[in-house]
UniProtKB/TrEMBL annotation:
Domain of life: Bacteria
Database matches in PROSITE patterns: THIOREDOXIN_2
Family, per entry: Belongs to the peroxiredoxin family. Prx5 subfamily.
Free-text function comment from the UniProt entry: Thiol-specific peroxidase that catalyzes the reduction of hydrogen peroxide and organic hydroperoxides to water and alcohols, respectively. Plays a role in cell protection against oxidative stress by detoxifying peroxides.
Keyword Transmembrane listed: no
CDD domains: PRX5_like
GO molecular function, one term: thioredoxin peroxidase activity
Domain Thioredoxin, chain residue ranges per copy: 3-161
Source organism: Rhizobium lentis
Name recorded for this polypeptide: Glutathione-dependent peroxiredoxin
Length: 161
């Protein structure tokens, strides 16, 4: 069952690369008492994710934060090494959270997994964005095609804010 507007996010633990190495970050730490934009991608370094989806959020980071958002995070079913390398190569390190849902436990719990085995990627996340307030989903924008970042992109999120 897919998470819906008004639902509370399930408890989960992600890994994130920091200057001091990997850290665990829980949904409680990330979302409690905060207004957070979370967007998910099928994979770090994949074409649409790297050329379209992530850049929009990095370019509009300050504008999004200026609309009363406390934090921005990108999530992928990748390990923290890959997410850390993507953060570095994209120029996003330290600007937004790059969360590794390495075992897809969060992705499965919110019902947004996608079997991309036909493309050689295996189990991944659908492409989506959500606005979360104090752990509750306020908006949810799921792409119909993993190769597009329109309804889940930064421009669409800015319109919702």
């Amino acid at each position: 069952m897919t998470i819906a507007i008004g639902d509370k996010l399930p408890a989960a633990t992600f890994k994130e690369k920091t200057a001091d190495g990997p850290v665990e970050i829980t949904t409680e730490q990330l979302f409690a008492g905060k207004r957070v934009v979370l967007f998910a991608v099928p994979g770090a370094f994949t074409p649409t994710c790297s050329l379209n989806h992530l850049p929009g959020y990095l370019e509009n980071r300050d504008t999004i934060l200026g609309k009363g958002v406390d934090d921005i995070a990108v999530l992928a079913v990748n390990d923290w090494h890959v997410m850390g390398a993507w953060a570095q190569s994209s120029g996003g390190f330290g600007k937004i959270h790059f969360l590794a849902d390495w075992d897809a436990s969060f992705t499965k719990a919110v019902g947004l997994e996608a079997d991309l085995s036909a493309g050689g990627l295996g189990l991944r996340s659908k492409r989506y964005s959500m606005l979360v307030e104090d752990g509750v989903v306020k908006s949810l924008n799921i792409e119909e095609s993993p190769g597009q970042a329109t309804v889940s992109g930064a421009a669409a999120m800015l319109e919702l804010l």
